[in-house]
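Quarterly update from the structural biology core.
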Amino acid sequence: MRGVVSAACSFETLTEAGYKPEIAYFEVLHELKLIVDLMWEGGIAKQRWSVSDTAEYGDYVSGPRVITPEVKENMKAVLADIQNGAFAKRFIEDQDAGAPEFLELRAKGEAHPIEATGRELRNLFSWKTSDDYTEGSVAR
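Predicted structure, tokenized:
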């Protein structure tokens, strides 16, 4: 289960509170690779140790306010759909029908303001994205 939805919600929360989209993007998405790399290298403990004490404390006291028992129950329901085949059935039926739901969801995700902000900021960086992906494209 991915953090894409939570990144979009986090971006929306910050921008709705008056943060500039560029700042929200850096807080939500740009630093994500560093966080994941630290966890990959040494687990959650290393990631927590590597950030400020304020950020670590915030993780302990704020994380449980966001990831509540209800979220865990929703995760269990999603897993059940995967295990009982409901997810695969829905996906296959959509694909067999020409993927209307899939394409609509893809377009909706691409239209999210975090994507436009990210494209603008990444164009300012000296590094470039992979050659197999064209920035902003939804077709494959």
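DSSP finds eight helices and no strands in the chain.
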